[in-house]
Amino acid sequence: MTSESRQLKVKDIFTNQLLSCDISTSLFSAVTKMRAHKVSSIFVTEEDKIVGIWTESDCVKLNFSQQGFQQTPIGELMATPVQSVQIDKSLSEATIKFHQLGIRHLLVKDEHFEPVGVVSLSDIVRNQGLDHYLHFRPIDDHYEKKVTILDSNDCISKVIDVMRIKQVTAVLINNKSLGEYGIITQRDIAYMVLNPDWRMPCWELASYPMQSVVPKDSLFDAYRLMTANSIRHLVVKEPTTEQVIGLLALKNVLTEIETAYCSELEKVLAQRDLALQKSEKNLYLANRIIDASLDGIMITRSSGEIIQINPAFSALTGYKDYEVLGKTPNLLSSGIHPPEYYKQMWAELDEKGVWQGEICNRKKNGDIYVEWLTIIEINEPYSDDVLYAAIFSDITERKNAEEKIVRLAYFDELTGLPNRRLFNDRLSMALASAHRDKQKLSVMFIDLDRFKEVNDTLGHSAGDELLVKVSERIKGQLREGDTLARLGGDEFVVLLTEVKDLADVVSFANDILDLLGQPFEISGMSVGATASIGAAVYPEDGLDSESLLKHADVAMYRSKEVGRNSFQLYKASMNARSLERLSMLSRFQSALECNEFELHYQPVQCLNEEHISSVECLLRWQDPNLGMISPAQFIPLAEELGLITKLDQWVINRACEKMAFWRHKGIQLQRIAINISAQHLHQGELALTVANALERHQLPGSCLEIELTESSFISNLHEAKSELKKLKALGVSIALDDFGTGYSALSYLTKLPIDVLKIDASFTAKVPDEYGNSEIVTAIVAMAKALKLKVVAEGVEKQVQKEFLKQLDCHYLQGYLFCRPLSESHWLSFYQERTGSNLETPMH
Questions:
Q1: What percent of the chain has pLDDT over 90?
Q2: Burial 531-547, CB ≥16 within 10 A → b, else e
Q3: Are 497 and 482 in contact (CB under 8 A)?
Q4: Contact 756, 790 (CB under 8 A)
Q5: Cα gap 204→155, rounded to integer Å
Q6: pLDDT in tens, 424-442
Q7: Number of H helices, E strands in the chain
Q8: CB-count burial class (<10 Å; 0-12, 13-18, 19+) for 225
Q9: DSSP state of 842
Q10: CA distance 588 to 184
């Protein structure tokens, strides 16, 4: 069954010639009317309303022997009630009704339920496009083999009796004298009403000669023969003897078509039901998915009318469904794109059925936003209508993030200046141009003096503000073609192009020194900033980027050595400084290998019980030639040379070794504290180093305390938190050293697993005399208790400070009042004196 026939409706095939007669009309008049219009049925009306129907098949119910039967009112013979079908119903629905009622005619009614015509089952069958089906059906399986054959001399009354009793629509008549077969049908009997002579020989009413077929012929051959000759019956003959063996009626052919059609119809209806269930399920799922989608979805007709949106559409644009349904997407237009943009969009959509791209639209509140839009063309099945689904997401933040990534890749986030990567690109281009045009250029390093003091004193936000203002002052001195970049921290680099001579470089550097020498207004305070500047000139001091940058750096370090706030041009002799740094690196490596480093110890006193609770390790370098070197000298060097982690590992192992030894000797200490660098924490190997050391020396984690400054957490809080959790899992205690000297420290107390706060000595030194500092220390102790943290006051040198801290119920103190940092032997002696223990001094 074709998709086209499935869509046919009753209105496409019905007959609008509705033959009818009044209920009082005689049978004779009704049949006369049927014969004149060549139809097989007539509707019966009463007061202009159809109340019944009479068909040819009803003729065999008549009593032809009754005198004047043809004058019987049709109302007494009609079938009632009359079954009907609406004109807009599908043929499938009409066919189901035919089969349910066992009838062959339906009255057709319009939308106002007024009769407008008639449709028969044959009408429907002929419109199903199933002729091809008849090709594969031989006559042999479908003709009537037990056909009634009467003699040509039998009277008509016998024919009528046979039709009524056997309920057949036709009988064959054999004229032996002529050697012919004829046929009498229900229609022939119906027309006898007009000339009722039921005693005459039946041959006079028979139609002959008859068309014949053989059993092997197809139903299609028979159907075509009937259609061509406008007949309803064929005789079936045996092919060799030509003996009549049966009768094939049009109804047999139609019945086969009906059977095929009904079979097809059942399949289609079953498929339709399954498809409908699937469609309903898919529609339900689709609507659920559409509603749950985080992307905005809008569905429109081809005319542009919006017929559906989802909640994400409303969330993204601000428009509710009642504000947009029935309108067009033009209400979202930003006005930014020219008409050509939309023409190109629709051209691609018509060609490919889909369009994707970025587009600027406007929200209900007027905000312009960027969206990633996909438009899909949807062709509805069994319909010429086209729908469009627009799926979009707001990518404004993503676009901003992409732009920010580009800025971060090539520009410094704080100052907006080019970073190292962009500076190197510009320097390479400038060198190529200078080489081509035989011109000079200069690379100049600018490093702020004592910038760390600004950070430590005023906080990092003040330091950032100073860097921004410094960059703005330097930018004001640049010419077109020059570049200022920030390499990181407080280091800036300048590229000066088209340098005529050294005087230009010197003049520029001196101007920068004068500018930076003028005070900066930072956080309501006047802050001075000086700089050390070093410069290298192309081609005298180098022919490539690497050489010029290295030599400018060497010159800058020389500027620091001669007293800061100065400028130095590169000289070859300055390389001696680089050699000195290499030498220091070599000496540092040697010091680690030769055990030139040693630990000193400063005990921590419990204020309530006044006993030694723990001890802090302090690193010292005993150089064979230079003597004792302070950590203030070698720690920054170790950080600069990337050796600080190696140094930390040495301290951790040595401290664990000593703690294990002391415990064996009976020294009662809760913990030994170790200061750790920020670099070691960020490398993610601190917990592993500590775990290995504890295992090596058979110590529980509770014997160890790791001290970190808040600067360790500034760059990456998440990374620091992860590493500290690993330490806590080992049982190790975490102390926050120099508390109160940085910024954002309060937030770390809740975000990180801190156990101990160490109040910086700069606060302790001024209590109880200075009001502000006393209040700060009081607040720190109270806050720590509220957070269930232990508090250690550092730098306690006076008894009055100790008494003040004791009143605050501070837990521990550390400082010269109790004990200075001691070598190992002196520490053991101090411990013996304070505890009365008798310990043997370890041999070295």
A1: 34
A2: bbbbbbbbbebbeebeb
A3: yes
A4: yes
A5: 9
A6: 999 999 999 998 888 899 9
A7: 31, 33
A8: middle
A9: P
A10: 129
The residue with greater pLDDT, 372 or 133, is 372
Calpha distance 18→41 (Å, rounded): 10
- How confident is the model over 388-407, as a mean pLDDT? 82
Backbone angles phi, psi at 151, to 5 degrees: -80, 150
- Read off φ and ψ for residue 718, nearest 5 degrees: -60, -45
Distance CA 92, CA 99 (A): 11
Q: What is the pLDDT of residue 383?
A: 59
For residue 742, which of 469, 489, 463 has the smallest C-alpha distance? Answer: 463
Burial of 459: CB neighbours in 10 Å, binned 0-12, 13-18, 19+: middle
CA distance 745 to 682: 18
CB atoms within 10 A of CB 1: 17
Going by C-alpha positions, the residue among 392, 390, 346 that lies closest to residue 369 is: 392
| Coil, strand or helix at 636 | helix
Q: Rounded to an integer, what distance in angstroms lies between the CA atom of residue 796 and that of residue 794?
A: 6
In whole angstroms, give the CA distance from residue 489 to residue 420: 12
| Alpha-carbon distance values, 793 to 275, 710, 713 (Å) | 80, 17, 22
What letters, b where the CB count within 10 A reaches 16 and e where it falls short, cover 274-305? eeeeeeeeeeeeeeeebeeeebbbbbbeeeee
Residues 6+ apart with CB under 8 A from 792: 604, 735, 756, 757, 758, 759, 811, 812, 813, 814
**Which pair of tokens denotes residue 787?**
């957070």
Q: What is the C-alpha radius of gyration for the chain, rounded to an integer number of angstroms?
A: 54
Query: Alpha-carbon distance 498 to 501, whole Å?
Result: 9
Question: Predicted confidence band at 576 (pLDDT cuts at 50, 70, 90)?
Answer: low
Tokens read off for 151: 């003699």
Which residues, in sequence order, are bridge partners of residue 415? none
Q: Residues for the chain: how many in total?
A: 844
Phi, psi of 841 (to 5 degrees): -75, 125
